[in-house]
Specification:
This protein is α+β, with helices and mostly antiparallel strands. The chain is built from four helices and six strands. The protein is elongated and about 105 Å long.
Length: about 210
């Protein structure tokens, strides 16, 4: 009987305590509710995260594959362009070498063709000298051939270097010897021409061999 009375007394005291401090019960209930909400949120986050990550990873992988395919296509296109340029340059190089070889081998064809008529004139002049004693006619014929040859050379850009009576110039003249000058004006000047010099388009192709007065 004593134990039963004590148990009843304890329940009454606990009830009085809860009535005096109702905030403790509210706090305990809220804490339990908050903990349950956090657990539910964590579970939902754990369930959502793997799906999102898989979707993002799947999208990135597709974009990378597309970019790589485009890049490989561009590289192949550039390689094709490079190979075509190499082939074109090789053909150009071979063609240029052939043209240069032909030019070197046949470069004098035009000049030789122009000299052939002059050779024909010389043949006729030699034949005429054997059958005639008219020296004036022979002389006139040779002069005509000489002038014809001179005109042809001028057409090809060849001209004679002026030497006789001019001041000695090492750019155009080659002194064979020196002799005492007859007058003061002849000193340092050319008094005789041993061999004529010629220019081809203002370039010396043969220096004039001269005698200089001193």
């Amino acid at each position: 009987m004593g134990k039963i009375r004590n148990s009843g007394r304890d329940k009454k005291e606990q009830k009085k305590t809860m009535e005096k401090h109702p905030e403790e019960k509210a706090v305990n209930n809220q804490g339990e509710t908050a903990n349950e909400g956090d657990d539910n949120m964590n579970v939902e986050a754990d369930n959502d995260t793997p799906d999102n990550e898989r979707e993002e990873n799947s999208g990135i992988s597709t974009e990378d594959n597309d970019s790589q395919a485009v890049l490989e296509e561009k590289i192949k296109e550039k390689e094709d362009q490079y190979l075509r340029l190499v082939a074109e340059f090789d053909n150009y190089r071979k063609r240029t070498l052939k043209e240069k070889a032909d030019l070197t081998r046949l470069g004098g064809e035009d000049i030789i063709s122009g000299l052939l008529p002059v050779m024909d004139d010389f043949d006729r002049a030699i034949e005429a000298m054997q059958n005639t004693k008219d020296t004036k006619a022979i002389k006139k014929g040779i002069e005509l051939i000489y002038n014809k040859l001179g005109d042809f050379l001028k057409q090809k850009g060849i001209k004679e270097i002026k030497a006789m009576g001019t001041k000695f110039d090492t750019d155009f003249h080659e002194a064979v010897t020196k002799i005492p000058a007859g007058t003061e004006k002849e000193k340092g000047k050319i008094v005789d021409v041993i061999e004529k010099g010629y220019l081809l388009h203002d370039k010396v192709i043969r220096y004039a061999k001269v005698v200089v007065g001193e």
